[in-house]
């Protein structure tokens, strides 16, 4: 089990793939083993690339899953992931936000696939309260501040997760098989990010538009990269190197995932 010396839960940045991730034995086993290494959370707060909304918005406990994808096997549209009520966590988060920054409690939105797909693998019993928070901005500085506000939750046993994909150039893929070779723009961006994460270089990571090789192909839109900064902001020391728990590629996209203390 992995927990820092203060007793805090770690915070994670994970690649969430797409529904077929659920049938990928390698990546599924990596996510499942990672979850087993963690202390059991009292609750999970997850920020997914697939809910961009300002002000900060929170999902509704008990709401149906969001099937925000198309063209996949019908079985994925019948899947469920009914978790315990997370109202107490929602109230706690609303109270943590500074004056003048309202929090919108959504009344009908459930978890999208950026949340429920990886969590079905990591916590298949669905017995931990899960709350999804919207991604309110793509500004790295503001997301680092948001993560810092969420940091105290880690002392309360809450697992904070940013869910995205370290490269996400879907329009530029030519081979959609799971074991496809990574295009140069994907492997170059992945290597650059791995080095910056290993160095704890927040400035370089934040200036990815100007500095990262493979741009803009690696992220023609940036919502899958942005959740990384919520995770880094929630770290005890945002500038300390994290532990890169998963690497490699899936459909040519980087599944590199990070754990911070």
Automatic annotation (TrEMBL):
CDD domains linked to this entry: 45_DOPA_Dioxygenase
Keywords: Dioxygenase, Metal-binding, Oxidoreductase, Zinc
Cofactor: Zn(2+)
Molecular function as annotated in GO: dioxygenase activity
Chain ranges of the Extradiol ring-cleavage dioxygenase class III enzyme subunit B domain: 30-237
SUPFAM superfamilies (alphabetical): LigB-like
Family recorded in the similarity comment: Belongs to the DODA-type extradiol aromatic ring-opening dioxygenase family.
Name of the protein in its database record: Class III extradiol ring-cleavage dioxygenase
């Amino acid at each position: 089990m992995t927990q820092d010396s203060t007793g805090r839960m770690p915070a994670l940045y994970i690649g969430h793939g797409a529904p077929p991730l659920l049938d990928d034995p390698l990546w599924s086993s990596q996510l499942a083993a990672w979850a087993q290494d963690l202390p059991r959370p009292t609750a999970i707060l997850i920020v997914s690339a697939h809910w961009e909304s300002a002000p900060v918005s929170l999902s509704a406990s008990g709401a149906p899953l969001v099937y925000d994808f198309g063209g996949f096997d019908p079985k994925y549209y019948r899947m469920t992931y009914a978790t315990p009520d997370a109202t107490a966590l929602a109230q706690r988060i609303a109270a943590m936000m500074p004056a003048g920054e309202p929090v919108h409690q959504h009344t009908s939105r459930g978890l999208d696939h950026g949340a429920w797909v990886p969590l079905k693998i990591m916590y298949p019993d669905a017995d931990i309260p899960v709350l999804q928070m919207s991604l309110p901005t793509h500004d790295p500085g503001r997301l680092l501040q948001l993560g810092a506000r969420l940091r105290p939750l880690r002392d309360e046993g809450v697992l904070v997760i940013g869910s995205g994909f370290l490269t996400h150039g879907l329009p530029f893929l030519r081979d959609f098989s799971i074991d496809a070779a990574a295009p140069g723009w994907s492997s170059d961006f992945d290597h650059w990010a791995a080095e910056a994460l290993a160095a704890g270089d927040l400035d370089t990571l934040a200036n990815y538009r100007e500095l990262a090789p493979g741009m803009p192909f690696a992220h023609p839109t940036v919502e899958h990269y942005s959740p990384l900064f919520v995770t880094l902001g929630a770290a005890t020391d945002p500038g300390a190197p994290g532990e890169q728990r998963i690497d490699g590629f899936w459909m040519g996209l980087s599944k590199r995932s990070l754990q911070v203390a």
